Amino acid sequence: MLTERVPVGLMSSVVAPQKPTSNTMGPKEVELILVKEQNGVQFTSTTLVAPTPTQTNPSGEEERETWGKKIDFLLSVIGFAVDLANVWRFPYLCYKNGGGAFLVPYLFFMVIAGMPLFYMELALGQYNREGAAGVWKICPIFKGVGFTVILISLYVGFYYNVIISWALFYLFSSFTGELPWVHCNNTWNSPNCSDWADNSSVSDLDKVTPAQEYFERGVLHIQDSNGIDDLGRPRWQLTSCLAVVIVLLYFSLWKGVKTSGKVVWITATMPYVVLTVLLLRGVTLPGAIDGIKAYLSVDFLRLCDAKVWIEAATQICFSLGVGFGVLIAFSSYNKFSNNCYRDAIITSSINSLTSFFSGFVVFSFLGYMSHKHNVALDKVARDGAGLVFVIYPEAIATLPGSSVWAVIFFIMLLTLGIDSAMGGMESVITGLIDEFKFLHKHRELFTLFIVVATFLISLFCVTNGGMYVFTLLDHFAAGTSILFGVLIEAIGIAWFYGVDRFSDDIEEMIGQRPGRYWRLCWKFVSPCFLLFMVVVSFATFNPPNYGSYMFPPWANMVGWCLAISSMSMVPLYAIYKLCTLPGKFCDIKYSVLFSSFSLL
Record-annotated residues binding Na(+) (predicted)? Predict the structure, then answer.
């Protein structure tokens, strides 16, 4: 008897390489047994055998590291998905679009698109155990979408870290007896500055509050810039805060998930502690109950407005964090048999519940502001940076012990931002070191290179005119391009790799095949939903603006080039793959089409 063992590898293919079907987990070997009978006839028998456990994979590379504990992974995913937008966007959308009635379209899109896409990315990363680009070894022609999401995460890091530096600047400014955004007698104040105590000034469009002037003139110094073509030099105060943020990010990421998994124990849990403390304080304030009632007031007639449904769908797309490659990167460090289905349900549910919970905190204070200054709630309600850097600090400044409350609030913003920024950086780092294997041995240096490069680009956002650069990046870096990326990702998995094969992969990991509902969502519902969102995104596009400032045409062109640079990775890589394969182009094209749709 002659016995030989040979590894079974995945065939290289343009579309979806064939793979052996088996119910066992992990890599396999085929044992070829040649049995010689007495009559001289030889028979061949093959059996699948498990390889001997080793510390290296068949290619001789070191085994992939895994999370120290399961809770490290869960906290990392929750910390990334629960970010500043949960505090400054969802509550305002809910208030503006029918209160409690807004939850109807929000939960509807959550069930048919949000959770299925969230589950898909976690399963994709965990099974293939590589970053956003490497996972597309299952369907190589779609690898370009991996580079798309890596670029998007990199672009977002250019300006997201700046928000954290603002929070850090406010935190340092809060260690004082009197908060600097209370009065109009500071050097940065203009003649238009007016205290809320003068109610007649509230309706005057030329008047601004001390808190708003502190943010725009005291922190950003936007009065020293005439527009995006007049940026000036980086301001040393914000540059120093940005440098501190970059250092925190580096030492959280340089050793991989072993270090980042410990950092999130603080950054992912602290916001919940602070939100609870702020809610307990907020509900005791006069007018707080009126604010919460306005937040939850139900107006089902608003559901007849198509814009309400579009905003609910948009919120789902961006709040869960799909399409940034972060979920793929994080789940790639899971153990192969980890129950990613349960993780997807738990983490996506916690994200949505956090958004809803934060609304009570926000509107308790907005109700208080409305009551204190005797103005309508819509005069103080807003979303975006204006909520957390103008309205909320202004409300905190009126409380006894305001400096203490300000410190607590900005620590929450800092932790909310840090773990989301860590997720975005990890997506870039993991995606690239998995694609370019030689970087594995130099993770510390490569991480340093990424964070320093991000810091240098972010310097444009901390100049006098940095808010204009920030607004441009925020408008173009992850808008239509992220929706496009997730759409191509869903099409690649559902229609080229195949829902059945993807379901087999999940069954191989967790021992349970996804139900018909999940398979229908992956194949039909989610792609249609995403296609609709991409079309709506183009149809409803409006050029960016900051207040009354309109960006010049060249700035909009730069913004579109930024968006197209990430989206173009999909066709460019597909063309590259087709051109580098041996054989005639017509034969390759026919093979691609035949192989793709034979899987349906």
Answer: 79, 81-82, 86, 319, 351, 416, 419-420
pLDDT in tens, 525-561: 999 999 999 999 999 899 999 988 999 999 999 999 9
- For residue 272, the tally of other CB atoms under 10 A from its CB is 17
57 marked ligand binding residue? no
Helix ranges restricted to H, 33-114: 70-81, 84-88, 90-96, 103-109
Task: Return the CATH number of the domain spanning residue range 70-593.
Answer: 1.20.1740
Asked if residue 556 belongs to a known ligand binding site, the reply is no
Question: Do residues 503 and 519 lie in contact, with contact meaning Cβ atoms separated by under 8 Å?
Answer: yes
What is the per-residue pLDDT across 371-402, written as a single tens digit (0 to 9) for each? 988 888 888 888 788 889 999 999 999 999 99
307: burial class by Cβ within 10 Å (0-12, 13-18, 19+)? exposed
CA dihedral angle for residue 412, residue 415, residue 421, residue 426, rounded to 10 degrees: -150
This model's pTM is above 0.70: yes
Cβ proximity of 23 and 508 under 8 Å:
yes
Strand, helix or coil for residue 251? helix
How far apart, in whole angstroms, are the C-alpha atoms of residue 518 and residue 120? 9
C-beta atoms surrounding 372 within 10 Å = 16
- Through-space distance between the first and last CA atoms of the chain, rounded to whole angstroms: 43
Does 358 show up as a binding residue in the annotation? Answer: no
How far is Cα 132 from Cα 129, in angstroms, rounded to an integer? 10
Contact between 509 and 124 under an 8 Å Cβ cutoff? The reply is no
Domain ranges for the chain: 70-593
Burial of 42 (0-12, 13-18, 19+ CB in 10 A): exposed
Residue 282 annotated as part of some ligand binding site? no
Residue 232 marked ligand-binding: no
Q: Is residue 351 a known part of a binding site?
A: yes
* Separation between Cα atoms, residue 190 and residue 187, nearest integer Å: 8
